[in-house]
Amino acid sequence: MTSLTQLPIWQALKQQRQTIEQQSLRDAFARDPGRAERYSVKAAGLMLDYSKNRIDDTTLAALLELARDCELESQRDAMFTGAAINRTENRAVLHTALRASGNTPVMVDGEDVMPEVRATLAKMKGFVEQIHEGQRTGYTGKAFTDVIAIGIGGSFLGPKVATEALRPYAKSLRLHYVANVDGTALSEKLKKVNAETTLVVMSSKSFTTQETLANTQSAREWFLASGASQADVAAHFVAISSNVPAAVEFGIDADNVFPMWDWVGGRYSLWSAIGLPIALAVGFDHFEQLLSGAEAMDRHFREAPLEQNMPVLMGLLSLWYSNFFDSQSQVILSYDHYLRGLPAYIQQLDMESNGKGVALDGTPVDYRTGPVIWGGEGTNGQHAYHQLLHQGTALIPADFILPLQSHNPLGRHHQMLAANCLAQTQALMQGKTLEEAKAELADRNLAPQALEQLARHKVMPGNRPSNTLLMDKLTPATLGALIALYEHRTFVQGAIWQINSFDQWGVELGKVLGNAVLDELEAEQAPLAQDASTNQLITLLRQGKL
Ligand code: F6P
Protein backbone atom coordinates (compact mmCIF):
# COMPACT_ATOMS: atom_id res chain seq x y z
CA MET A 1 0.00 0.00 0.00
CA THR A 2 1.47 3.38 -1.00
CA SER A 3 1.68 5.76 1.86
CA LEU A 4 -0.88 8.44 1.34
CA THR A 5 1.65 11.14 2.05
CA GLN A 6 3.86 9.94 -0.81
CA LEU A 7 1.16 10.53 -3.42
CA PRO A 8 2.01 13.42 -5.77
CA ILE A 9 -1.43 14.90 -5.13
CA TRP A 10 -0.75 14.96 -1.38
CA GLN A 11 2.39 16.95 -2.05
CA ALA A 12 0.42 19.24 -4.36
CA LEU A 13 -2.13 19.81 -1.60
CA LYS A 14 0.68 20.79 0.77
CA GLN A 15 1.72 23.42 -1.77
CA GLN A 16 -1.87 24.46 -2.14
CA ARG A 17 -2.07 25.14 1.58
CA GLN A 18 0.81 27.64 1.23
CA THR A 19 -1.17 29.49 -1.45
CA ILE A 20 -4.44 29.45 0.48
CA GLU A 21 -2.62 30.59 3.60
CA GLN A 22 -1.97 33.92 1.83
CA GLN A 23 -5.61 34.44 0.87
CA SER A 24 -8.41 35.90 2.90
CA LEU A 25 -11.96 34.65 2.68
CA ARG A 26 -13.21 38.20 2.92
CA ASP A 27 -11.32 39.08 -0.23
CA ALA A 28 -12.42 35.90 -1.95
CA PHE A 29 -16.07 36.87 -1.42
CA ALA A 30 -15.41 40.45 -2.51
CA ARG A 31 -13.67 39.28 -5.68
CA ASP A 32 -16.15 36.64 -6.68
CA PRO A 33 -19.89 37.38 -6.40
CA GLY A 34 -20.67 33.84 -7.58
CA ARG A 35 -18.72 32.13 -4.80
CA ALA A 36 -21.66 31.28 -2.54
CA GLU A 37 -23.72 29.85 -5.35
CA ARG A 38 -20.81 27.94 -6.86
CA TYR A 39 -19.83 26.41 -3.54
CA SER A 40 -23.30 25.21 -2.58
CA VAL A 41 -24.99 21.91 -3.23
CA LYS A 42 -28.44 20.48 -2.61
CA ALA A 43 -29.34 16.85 -1.95
CA ALA A 44 -32.06 14.84 -0.23
CA GLY A 45 -33.81 17.90 1.19
CA LEU A 46 -30.59 19.46 2.51
CA MET A 47 -28.48 22.32 1.28
CA LEU A 48 -24.81 22.71 2.05
CA ASP A 49 -23.20 26.11 1.67
CA TYR A 50 -19.46 25.45 1.88
CA SER A 51 -18.36 28.77 0.47
CA LYS A 52 -16.97 29.95 3.82
CA ASN A 53 -14.16 27.42 3.57
CA ARG A 54 -10.51 28.16 2.87
CA ILE A 55 -10.56 26.81 -0.63
CA ASP A 56 -10.52 27.95 -4.23
CA ASP A 57 -11.20 26.03 -7.42
CA THR A 58 -7.65 24.68 -7.50
CA THR A 59 -7.92 23.38 -3.95
CA LEU A 60 -11.21 21.69 -4.69
CA ALA A 61 -9.89 20.10 -7.85
CA ALA A 62 -6.86 18.81 -5.96
CA LEU A 63 -8.99 17.39 -3.14
CA LEU A 64 -11.21 15.65 -5.67
CA GLU A 65 -8.14 14.27 -7.38
CA LEU A 66 -6.97 12.91 -4.04
CA ALA A 67 -10.34 11.19 -3.64
CA ARG A 68 -10.01 9.64 -7.10
CA ASP A 69 -6.42 8.59 -6.54
CA CYS A 70 -7.54 6.84 -3.36
CA GLU A 71 -10.25 5.04 -5.34
CA LEU A 72 -13.00 6.49 -3.25
CA GLU A 73 -15.68 5.58 -5.79
CA SER A 74 -14.80 1.89 -5.95
CA GLN A 75 -14.47 1.74 -2.16
CA ARG A 76 -17.93 3.30 -1.86
CA ASP A 77 -19.39 0.83 -4.35
CA ALA A 78 -17.80 -2.06 -2.46
CA MET A 79 -19.60 -0.94 0.69
CA PHE A 80 -23.00 -0.66 -0.99
CA THR A 81 -22.67 -4.05 -2.66
CA GLY A 82 -21.81 -5.99 0.48
CA ALA A 83 -18.06 -6.58 0.16
CA ALA A 84 -16.37 -7.43 3.48
CA ILE A 85 -14.79 -3.98 3.80
CA ASN A 86 -14.55 -4.33 7.58
CA ARG A 87 -11.47 -6.42 7.04
CA THR A 88 -10.35 -6.88 10.64
CA GLU A 89 -13.66 -8.52 11.44
CA ASN A 90 -14.24 -9.90 7.95
CA ARG A 91 -17.68 -8.32 7.76
CA ALA A 92 -19.73 -6.46 5.22
CA VAL A 93 -20.90 -2.94 6.13
CA LEU A 94 -24.48 -2.63 5.05
CA HIS A 95 -26.38 -0.07 7.06
CA THR A 96 -27.45 1.24 3.65
CA ALA A 97 -29.33 -2.04 2.99
CA LEU A 98 -31.49 -1.33 6.04
CA ARG A 99 -33.03 1.66 4.31
CA ALA A 100 -33.07 0.34 0.74
CA SER A 101 -36.64 0.28 -0.52
CA GLY A 102 -36.28 -1.28 -3.97
CA ASN A 103 -36.17 -4.91 -4.95
CA THR A 104 -32.46 -5.03 -5.67
CA PRO A 105 -30.89 -7.97 -3.82
CA VAL A 106 -27.96 -7.20 -1.53
CA MET A 107 -25.71 -10.21 -1.24
CA VAL A 108 -23.63 -11.18 1.77
CA ASP A 109 -21.78 -14.50 1.51
CA GLY A 110 -23.95 -15.50 -1.43
CA GLU A 111 -27.23 -14.72 0.33
CA ASP A 112 -29.63 -11.87 -0.27
CA VAL A 113 -30.09 -10.07 3.06
CA MET A 114 -33.09 -8.04 1.93
CA PRO A 115 -35.83 -10.58 2.75
CA GLU A 116 -34.64 -10.67 6.38
CA VAL A 117 -34.43 -6.88 6.51
CA ARG A 118 -38.00 -6.58 5.25
CA ALA A 119 -39.28 -9.32 7.57
CA THR A 120 -37.75 -7.54 10.57
CA LEU A 121 -39.27 -4.22 9.52
CA ALA A 122 -42.65 -5.96 9.20
CA LYS A 123 -42.26 -7.48 12.67
CA MET A 124 -41.36 -4.04 14.09
CA LYS A 125 -44.36 -2.48 12.36
CA GLY A 126 -46.74 -5.08 13.76
CA PHE A 127 -45.31 -4.73 17.25
CA VAL A 128 -45.41 -0.91 17.25
CA GLU A 129 -48.97 -0.82 15.94
CA GLN A 130 -50.16 -3.35 18.51
CA ILE A 131 -48.68 -1.24 21.29
CA HIS A 132 -50.07 2.04 19.93
CA GLU A 133 -53.50 0.58 19.36
CA GLY A 134 -53.60 -1.00 22.80
CA GLN A 135 -53.85 -4.57 21.45
CA ARG A 136 -50.68 -5.44 23.24
CA THR A 137 -50.82 -4.40 26.87
CA GLY A 138 -49.02 -4.88 30.14
CA TYR A 139 -49.65 -7.94 32.27
CA THR A 140 -52.64 -6.42 34.07
CA GLY A 141 -54.30 -5.45 30.79
CA LYS A 142 -53.43 -1.76 31.01
CA ALA A 143 -52.08 0.03 27.94
CA PHE A 144 -48.38 0.86 27.95
CA THR A 145 -47.59 4.46 28.81
CA ASP A 146 -43.79 4.34 29.13
CA VAL A 147 -40.83 2.68 27.49
CA ILE A 148 -37.49 2.21 29.22
CA ALA A 149 -34.95 1.79 26.41
CA ILE A 150 -31.72 0.24 27.65
CA GLY A 151 -28.54 0.20 25.55
CA ILE A 152 -25.25 2.05 25.21
CA GLY A 153 -23.02 3.50 22.47
CA GLY A 154 -24.56 2.84 19.09
CA SER A 155 -27.40 0.98 20.76
CA PHE A 156 -28.37 4.18 22.55
CA LEU A 157 -27.24 7.39 20.90
CA GLY A 158 -29.03 7.00 17.56
CA PRO A 159 -32.43 6.12 19.04
CA LYS A 160 -32.13 8.74 21.76
CA VAL A 161 -31.09 11.55 19.42
CA ALA A 162 -33.75 10.65 16.83
CA THR A 163 -36.47 10.42 19.48
CA GLU A 164 -35.48 13.84 20.78
CA ALA A 165 -35.20 15.31 17.28
CA LEU A 166 -38.62 14.02 16.22
CA ARG A 167 -40.46 15.19 19.31
CA PRO A 168 -43.01 17.12 17.19
CA TYR A 169 -44.11 13.77 15.74
CA ALA A 170 -44.33 12.00 19.11
CA LYS A 171 -47.26 9.76 19.96
CA SER A 172 -48.34 9.34 23.54
CA LEU A 173 -45.73 6.83 24.77
CA ARG A 174 -43.05 8.36 26.96
CA LEU A 175 -39.51 7.18 26.13
CA HIS A 176 -36.80 7.00 28.80
CA TYR A 177 -33.27 6.10 27.72
CA VAL A 178 -30.82 4.44 30.08
CA ALA A 179 -27.21 3.82 29.07
CA ASN A 180 -24.80 4.31 31.95
CA VAL A 181 -24.11 1.51 34.39
CA ASP A 182 -24.23 4.15 37.14
CA GLY A 183 -27.26 2.93 39.10
CA THR A 184 -28.47 6.50 39.33
CA ALA A 185 -29.33 6.49 35.63
CA LEU A 186 -31.77 3.60 35.91
CA SER A 187 -33.05 4.45 39.39
CA GLU A 188 -34.04 7.96 38.38
CA LYS A 189 -36.00 6.66 35.39
CA LEU A 190 -37.70 3.91 37.37
CA LYS A 191 -38.96 6.50 39.85
CA LYS A 192 -41.01 8.02 37.05
CA VAL A 193 -42.76 4.90 35.78
CA ASN A 194 -45.22 2.23 36.82
CA ALA A 195 -44.24 -1.40 36.19
CA GLU A 196 -47.75 -2.34 35.03
CA THR A 197 -47.61 0.10 32.13
CA THR A 198 -43.89 0.04 31.28
CA LEU A 199 -42.27 -1.76 28.39
CA VAL A 200 -38.54 -2.44 28.60
CA VAL A 201 -36.64 -2.49 25.31
CA MET A 202 -33.12 -3.84 25.66
CA SER A 203 -30.76 -3.13 22.75
CA SER A 204 -27.42 -4.86 22.47
CA LYS A 205 -25.97 -6.08 19.23
CA SER A 206 -23.49 -8.36 20.98
CA PHE A 207 -25.59 -9.12 24.03
CA THR A 208 -22.38 -9.06 26.06
CA THR A 209 -22.18 -5.40 27.03
CA GLN A 210 -21.77 -5.14 30.78
CA GLU A 211 -23.72 -1.92 31.24
CA THR A 212 -26.72 -3.06 29.22
CA LEU A 213 -26.90 -6.50 30.82
CA ALA A 214 -26.65 -5.02 34.33
CA ASN A 215 -29.32 -2.39 33.63
CA THR A 216 -31.70 -4.96 32.12
CA GLN A 217 -31.13 -7.35 35.01
CA SER A 218 -31.91 -4.59 37.51
CA ALA A 219 -34.96 -3.49 35.52
CA ARG A 220 -36.22 -7.06 35.62
CA GLU A 221 -35.66 -7.25 39.40
CA TRP A 222 -37.58 -3.98 39.80
CA PHE A 223 -40.38 -5.38 37.64
CA LEU A 224 -40.63 -8.60 39.66
CA ALA A 225 -40.41 -6.68 42.94
CA SER A 226 -43.43 -4.64 41.86
CA GLY A 227 -45.62 -7.75 42.17
CA ALA A 228 -45.36 -9.15 38.65
CA SER A 229 -44.50 -12.81 38.17
CA GLN A 230 -41.76 -14.41 36.09
CA ALA A 231 -44.39 -15.28 33.49
CA ASP A 232 -45.28 -11.60 33.14
CA VAL A 233 -41.74 -10.74 31.98
CA ALA A 234 -42.64 -11.86 28.46
CA ALA A 235 -45.26 -9.14 28.11
CA HIS A 236 -42.89 -6.38 29.26
CA PHE A 237 -39.38 -7.18 28.05
CA VAL A 238 -38.18 -7.17 24.44
CA ALA A 239 -34.64 -7.27 23.09
CA ILE A 240 -32.84 -6.37 19.90
CA SER A 241 -29.68 -8.31 19.24
CA SER A 242 -27.64 -10.16 16.65
CA ASN A 243 -27.09 -12.78 19.37
CA VAL A 244 -30.64 -14.15 19.59
CA PRO A 245 -29.69 -17.31 21.58
CA ALA A 246 -28.01 -15.19 24.29
CA ALA A 247 -31.11 -12.99 24.54
CA VAL A 248 -33.33 -16.04 24.97
CA GLU A 249 -30.97 -17.53 27.53
CA PHE A 250 -31.09 -14.24 29.43
CA GLY A 251 -34.82 -14.75 29.78
CA ILE A 252 -36.29 -12.72 26.93
CA ASP A 253 -39.14 -14.56 25.21
CA ALA A 254 -37.97 -15.76 21.77
CA ASP A 255 -40.91 -13.99 20.08
CA ASN A 256 -39.79 -10.76 21.70
CA VAL A 257 -36.32 -10.76 20.20
CA PHE A 258 -35.81 -8.61 17.12
CA PRO A 259 -32.78 -9.61 15.09
CA MET A 260 -29.95 -7.54 13.69
CA TRP A 261 -26.86 -8.72 11.89
CA ASP A 262 -23.12 -8.57 12.13
CA TRP A 263 -23.02 -6.57 8.90
CA VAL A 264 -24.54 -3.61 10.77
CA GLY A 265 -22.05 -1.67 12.89
CA GLY A 266 -23.35 -0.52 16.29
CA ARG A 267 -22.88 3.16 15.53
CA TYR A 268 -24.64 2.73 12.16
CA SER A 269 -27.54 0.72 13.54
CA LEU A 270 -30.42 3.09 14.24
CA TRP A 271 -31.96 2.03 10.92
CA SER A 272 -32.24 -1.58 12.09
CA ALA A 273 -34.47 -2.94 14.86
CA ILE A 274 -32.21 -0.90 17.17
CA GLY A 275 -34.52 1.90 15.98
CA LEU A 276 -37.54 0.22 17.58
CA PRO A 277 -37.72 2.81 20.39
CA ILE A 278 -37.84 5.55 17.72
CA ALA A 279 -40.79 3.84 16.02
CA LEU A 280 -42.48 3.41 19.40
CA ALA A 281 -41.98 7.12 20.07
CA VAL A 282 -43.11 8.55 16.73
CA GLY A 283 -44.97 5.76 14.95
CA PHE A 284 -43.81 3.35 12.29
CA ASP A 285 -44.81 5.64 9.41
CA HIS A 286 -42.41 8.29 10.65
CA PHE A 287 -39.70 5.68 11.17
CA GLU A 288 -40.18 4.70 7.52
CA GLN A 289 -39.83 8.35 6.48
CA LEU A 290 -36.57 8.50 8.44
CA LEU A 291 -35.36 5.52 6.41
CA SER A 292 -36.45 7.13 3.13
CA GLY A 293 -34.57 10.32 3.95
CA ALA A 294 -31.43 8.30 4.56
CA GLU A 295 -32.02 6.32 1.38
CA ALA A 296 -32.27 9.55 -0.62
CA MET A 297 -28.86 10.57 0.75
CA ASP A 298 -27.50 7.11 -0.10
CA ARG A 299 -28.67 7.53 -3.68
CA HIS A 300 -27.05 10.93 -3.89
CA PHE A 301 -23.79 9.62 -2.43
CA ARG A 302 -23.78 6.76 -4.90
CA GLU A 303 -24.82 8.63 -8.01
CA ALA A 304 -23.82 12.30 -7.85
CA PRO A 305 -20.52 13.25 -9.48
CA LEU A 306 -17.85 13.77 -6.85
CA GLU A 307 -17.76 17.53 -7.43
CA GLN A 308 -21.44 17.82 -6.47
CA ASN A 309 -21.49 15.08 -3.91
CA MET A 310 -22.35 16.45 -0.48
CA PRO A 311 -20.79 13.75 1.73
CA VAL A 312 -17.70 13.69 -0.50
CA LEU A 313 -17.27 17.46 -0.33
CA MET A 314 -17.79 17.52 3.43
CA GLY A 315 -15.38 14.64 3.94
CA LEU A 316 -12.73 16.30 1.80
CA LEU A 317 -13.10 19.65 3.52
CA SER A 318 -12.81 18.04 6.90
CA LEU A 319 -9.69 16.19 5.75
CA TRP A 320 -8.26 19.38 4.26
CA TYR A 321 -8.11 21.00 7.68
CA SER A 322 -7.01 17.88 9.58
CA ASN A 323 -4.17 16.98 7.26
CA PHE A 324 -3.07 20.27 5.79
CA PHE A 325 -3.87 22.84 8.48
CA ASP A 326 -3.07 20.59 11.42
CA SER A 327 -6.53 21.18 12.83
CA GLN A 328 -7.27 18.73 15.63
CA SER A 329 -10.94 19.21 16.27
CA GLN A 330 -14.19 20.08 14.57
CA VAL A 331 -17.34 21.47 16.03
CA ILE A 332 -20.97 20.65 15.21
CA LEU A 333 -23.37 23.44 16.08
CA SER A 334 -27.08 22.63 15.96
CA TYR A 335 -29.24 25.71 15.69
CA ASP A 336 -32.33 23.75 16.59
CA HIS A 337 -33.24 22.70 20.10
CA TYR A 338 -34.58 19.37 18.85
CA LEU A 339 -31.15 18.61 17.39
CA ARG A 340 -29.28 19.38 20.59
CA GLY A 341 -28.15 15.75 20.89
CA LEU A 342 -26.75 15.52 17.36
CA PRO A 343 -23.17 16.56 18.22
CA ALA A 344 -22.88 13.67 20.70
CA TYR A 345 -24.22 11.29 18.07
CA ILE A 346 -21.75 12.48 15.42
CA GLN A 347 -19.01 12.37 18.03
CA GLN A 348 -19.49 8.63 18.50
CA LEU A 349 -20.08 7.99 14.82
CA ASP A 350 -16.92 9.76 13.73
CA MET A 351 -14.54 9.18 16.63
CA GLU A 352 -15.27 5.47 17.05
CA SER A 353 -15.02 5.06 13.29
CA ASN A 354 -11.97 7.12 12.44
CA GLY A 355 -10.04 7.16 15.70
CA LYS A 356 -7.50 4.74 14.22
CA GLY A 357 -3.71 4.77 14.03
CA VAL A 358 -2.89 2.02 11.54
CA ALA A 359 -3.75 1.66 7.87
CA LEU A 360 -5.64 -1.36 6.56
CA ASP A 361 -2.37 -3.21 6.03
CA GLY A 362 -1.46 -2.75 9.71
CA THR A 363 1.26 -0.15 9.19
CA PRO A 364 1.15 2.96 11.37
CA VAL A 365 -0.18 5.99 9.53
CA ASP A 366 2.05 9.05 9.20
CA TYR A 367 -0.81 11.54 8.96
CA ARG A 368 -3.57 12.73 11.23
CA THR A 369 -6.78 10.69 11.14
CA GLY A 370 -10.12 11.32 12.88
CA PRO A 371 -10.45 14.73 14.54
CA VAL A 372 -11.95 15.33 17.96
CA ILE A 373 -15.64 16.02 17.35
CA TRP A 374 -17.56 18.09 19.79
CA GLY A 375 -20.31 20.67 19.79
CA GLY A 376 -23.63 21.72 21.12
CA GLU A 377 -26.70 23.79 20.67
CA GLY A 378 -26.80 27.33 19.29
CA THR A 379 -27.20 29.96 20.54
CA ASN A 380 -26.14 28.55 23.93
CA GLY A 381 -22.61 27.84 22.74
CA GLN A 382 -22.16 31.48 21.68
CA HIS A 383 -22.07 32.36 25.36
CA ALA A 384 -19.61 29.61 26.17
CA TYR A 385 -17.06 28.17 23.74
CA HIS A 386 -17.55 30.35 20.65
CA GLN A 387 -15.05 32.80 22.14
CA LEU A 388 -12.34 30.21 21.51
CA LEU A 389 -13.65 29.57 18.00
CA HIS A 390 -13.33 33.28 17.19
CA GLN A 391 -10.12 34.26 18.92
CA GLY A 392 -8.44 31.11 20.26
CA THR A 393 -5.20 29.83 18.78
CA ALA A 394 -6.67 26.62 17.34
CA LEU A 395 -8.29 26.34 13.94
CA ILE A 396 -11.62 24.59 14.52
CA PRO A 397 -13.80 24.13 11.44
CA ALA A 398 -17.48 24.40 12.28
CA ASP A 399 -20.67 22.91 10.88
CA PHE A 400 -23.73 25.07 11.47
CA ILE A 401 -27.05 23.24 11.11
CA LEU A 402 -30.24 25.23 10.75
CA PRO A 403 -33.81 24.43 9.64
CA LEU A 404 -35.47 27.30 7.74
CA GLN A 405 -38.76 26.76 9.55
CA SER A 406 -39.36 26.10 13.19
CA HIS A 407 -41.84 23.61 14.62
CA ASN A 408 -42.56 26.24 17.25
CA PRO A 409 -42.88 29.60 15.52
CA LEU A 410 -42.99 31.68 18.65
CA GLY A 411 -42.91 35.42 17.96
CA ARG A 412 -39.54 36.46 16.52
CA HIS A 413 -37.62 33.59 18.13
CA HIS A 414 -36.78 31.71 14.98
CA GLN A 415 -35.61 34.83 13.17
CA MET A 416 -33.35 35.62 16.10
CA LEU A 417 -32.00 32.07 16.21
CA ALA A 418 -31.35 32.08 12.46
CA ALA A 419 -29.77 35.54 12.52
CA ASN A 420 -27.38 34.41 15.23
CA CYS A 421 -26.44 31.33 13.27
CA LEU A 422 -25.69 33.26 10.09
CA ALA A 423 -23.89 36.00 11.98
CA GLN A 424 -21.60 33.47 13.63
CA THR A 425 -20.55 32.00 10.29
CA GLN A 426 -19.97 35.53 9.02
CA ALA A 427 -17.95 36.64 12.05
CA LEU A 428 -15.75 33.54 11.86
CA MET A 429 -15.15 34.14 8.18
CA GLN A 430 -14.52 37.89 8.06
CA GLY A 431 -13.08 38.54 11.51
CA LYS A 432 -12.15 42.06 12.51
CA THR A 433 -8.97 43.87 11.50
CA LEU A 434 -6.86 46.07 13.76
CA GLU A 435 -7.98 49.09 11.77
CA GLU A 436 -11.62 48.20 12.28
CA ALA A 437 -11.08 47.63 15.97
CA LYS A 438 -9.33 50.99 16.27
CA ALA A 439 -12.10 52.74 14.36
CA GLU A 440 -14.65 51.31 16.78
CA LEU A 441 -12.72 52.80 19.67
CA ALA A 442 -12.22 56.19 18.05
CA ASP A 443 -14.73 58.03 20.20
CA ARG A 444 -13.27 56.72 23.48
CA ASN A 445 -10.63 59.45 23.73
CA LEU A 446 -7.86 56.98 24.52
CA ALA A 447 -4.18 57.77 24.27
CA PRO A 448 -2.73 56.28 21.06
CA GLN A 449 -0.83 53.55 22.88
CA ALA A 450 -3.84 52.56 25.03
CA LEU A 451 -6.04 52.57 21.94
CA GLU A 452 -3.63 50.33 20.07
CA GLN A 453 -3.35 47.97 23.01
CA LEU A 454 -7.08 47.64 23.58
CA ALA A 455 -7.75 47.30 19.87
CA ARG A 456 -5.42 44.30 19.69
CA HIS A 457 -7.69 42.43 22.08
CA LYS A 458 -10.61 43.11 19.80
CA VAL A 459 -8.98 41.86 16.63
CA MET A 460 -10.51 38.66 15.30
CA PRO A 461 -8.34 36.82 12.81
CA GLY A 462 -11.23 35.63 10.62
CA ASN A 463 -10.58 33.03 7.94
CA ARG A 464 -12.14 30.48 10.28
CA PRO A 465 -13.93 27.98 8.10
CA SER A 466 -17.49 26.80 8.40
CA ASN A 467 -20.17 24.87 6.56
CA THR A 468 -23.81 25.83 6.77
CA LEU A 469 -26.34 23.04 6.41
CA LEU A 470 -29.94 24.03 5.83
CA MET A 471 -33.22 22.14 5.50
CA ASP A 472 -36.77 23.39 5.11
CA LYS A 473 -37.84 21.83 8.38
CA LEU A 474 -36.61 19.13 10.71
CA THR A 475 -38.74 16.17 9.63
CA PRO A 476 -38.16 12.41 9.83
CA ALA A 477 -36.93 12.52 6.22
CA THR A 478 -34.54 15.43 6.65
CA LEU A 479 -33.22 13.94 9.88
CA GLY A 480 -32.59 10.64 8.06
CA ALA A 481 -30.75 12.46 5.28
CA LEU A 482 -28.69 14.48 7.77
CA ILE A 483 -27.55 11.45 9.73
CA ALA A 484 -26.76 9.50 6.55
CA LEU A 485 -24.79 12.52 5.32
CA TYR A 486 -22.52 12.36 8.35
CA GLU A 487 -22.23 8.57 8.07
CA HIS A 488 -20.97 8.95 4.52
CA ARG A 489 -18.74 11.90 5.39
CA THR A 490 -17.09 9.64 7.95
CA PHE A 491 -16.75 6.91 5.32
CA VAL A 492 -15.15 9.27 2.80
CA GLN A 493 -12.43 10.25 5.23
CA GLY A 494 -11.77 6.70 6.40
CA ALA A 495 -11.52 5.55 2.78
CA ILE A 496 -8.95 8.20 1.91
CA TRP A 497 -7.00 7.60 5.11
CA GLN A 498 -6.94 3.87 4.23
CA ILE A 499 -8.12 2.91 7.71
CA ASN A 500 -10.86 0.57 8.85
CA SER A 501 -13.73 2.84 9.91
CA PHE A 502 -15.82 -0.11 11.03
CA ASP A 503 -14.01 -1.83 13.87
CA GLN A 504 -13.41 -0.51 17.40
CA TRP A 505 -10.66 -2.58 18.99
CA GLY A 506 -9.62 0.40 21.08
CA VAL A 507 -12.55 -0.01 23.44
CA GLU A 508 -11.62 -3.61 24.26
CA LEU A 509 -8.67 -3.11 26.63
CA GLY A 510 -10.73 -0.90 28.92
CA LYS A 511 -13.45 -3.56 29.05
CA VAL A 512 -11.00 -6.33 29.95
CA LEU A 513 -9.24 -4.28 32.62
CA GLY A 514 -12.61 -3.08 33.91
CA ASN A 515 -13.62 -6.66 34.60
CA ALA A 516 -10.34 -7.42 36.39
CA VAL A 517 -10.72 -4.34 38.59
CA LEU A 518 -14.35 -5.22 39.29
CA ASP A 519 -13.31 -8.69 40.49
CA GLU A 520 -10.81 -7.15 42.89
CA LEU A 521 -13.24 -4.50 44.10
CA GLU A 522 -15.78 -7.13 44.94
CA ALA A 523 -13.36 -9.61 46.52
CA GLU A 524 -13.07 -7.54 49.67
CA GLN A 525 -10.02 -9.10 51.31
CA ALA A 526 -8.14 -10.61 48.36
CA PRO A 527 -4.64 -9.24 47.65
CA LEU A 528 -4.45 -6.63 44.92
CA ALA A 529 -2.54 -7.34 41.74
CA GLN A 530 -2.77 -4.05 39.83
CA ASP A 531 -0.29 -1.19 39.58
CA ALA A 532 0.31 0.83 42.75
CA SER A 533 -1.97 3.70 41.83
CA THR A 534 -4.88 1.43 40.89
CA ASN A 535 -4.33 -0.67 44.03
CA GLN A 536 -4.51 2.47 46.16
CA LEU A 537 -7.74 3.54 44.50
CA ILE A 538 -9.28 0.06 44.84
CA THR A 539 -8.41 0.07 48.54
CA LEU A 540 -10.22 3.38 49.01
CA LEU A 541 -13.25 2.10 47.17
CA ARG A 542 -13.30 -1.03 49.29
CA GLN A 543 -13.21 1.19 52.38
CA GLY A 544 -15.86 3.49 50.97
CA LYS A 545 -14.27 6.53 52.59
CA LEU A 546 -11.03 8.52 52.34
O1 F6P B 1 -18.37 1.19 22.82
C1 F6P B 1 -18.13 0.06 22.07
C2 F6P B 1 -19.36 -0.54 21.52
O2 F6P B 1 -18.93 -1.76 21.04
C3 F6P B 1 -20.06 0.28 20.43
O3 F6P B 1 -19.47 0.16 19.19
C4 F6P B 1 -21.43 -0.29 20.48
O4 F6P B 1 -22.36 0.49 19.81
C5 F6P B 1 -21.63 -0.34 21.97
O5 F6P B 1 -20.38 -0.75 22.48
C6 F6P B 1 -22.74 -1.24 22.46
O6 F6P B 1 -22.58 -2.54 22.01
P1 F6P B 1 -23.76 -3.58 22.01
O7 F6P B 1 -24.83 -3.09 21.12
O8 F6P B 1 -23.15 -4.85 21.53
O9 F6P B 1 -24.27 -3.71 23.42
UniProtKB/TrEMBL annotation:
SUPFAM superfamilies in the cross-refs: SIS domain (SSF53697)
Recorded catalytic activity of this chain's protein: alpha-D-glucose 6-phosphate = beta-D-fructose 6-phosphate
InterPro entries in alphabetical order: G6P_Isomerase, G6P_Isomerase_C, Phosphoglucose_isomerase_CS, SIS_dom_sf, SIS_PGI_1, SIS_PGI_2
EC nos: 5.3.1.9
Keyword Transmembrane belongs to the record: no
Keywords, ordered alphabetically: Cytoplasm, Gluconeogenesis, Glycolysis, Isomerase
GO molecular-function terms, A-Z: isomerase activity
Cell compartment(s), UniProt: Cytoplasm
Active site (record annotation): 352 (proton donor), 383, 511
Pathway noted in the entry: Carbohydrate degradation; glycolysis; D-glyceraldehyde 3-phosphate and glycerone phosphate from D-glucose: step 2/4; Carbohydrate biosynthesis; gluconeogenesis
Pfam annotation, one family: PGI
Family named by the database record: Belongs to the GPI family.
Role description: Catalyzes the reversible isomerization of glucose-6-phosphate to fructose-6-phosphate.
PANTHER family in the cross-refs: GLUCOSE-6-PHOSPHATE ISOMERASE
Protein name (Swiss-Prot/TrEMBL): Glucose-6-phosphate isomerase
Lineage: Bacteria, Pseudomonadati, Pseudomonadota, Gammaproteobacteria, Alteromonadales
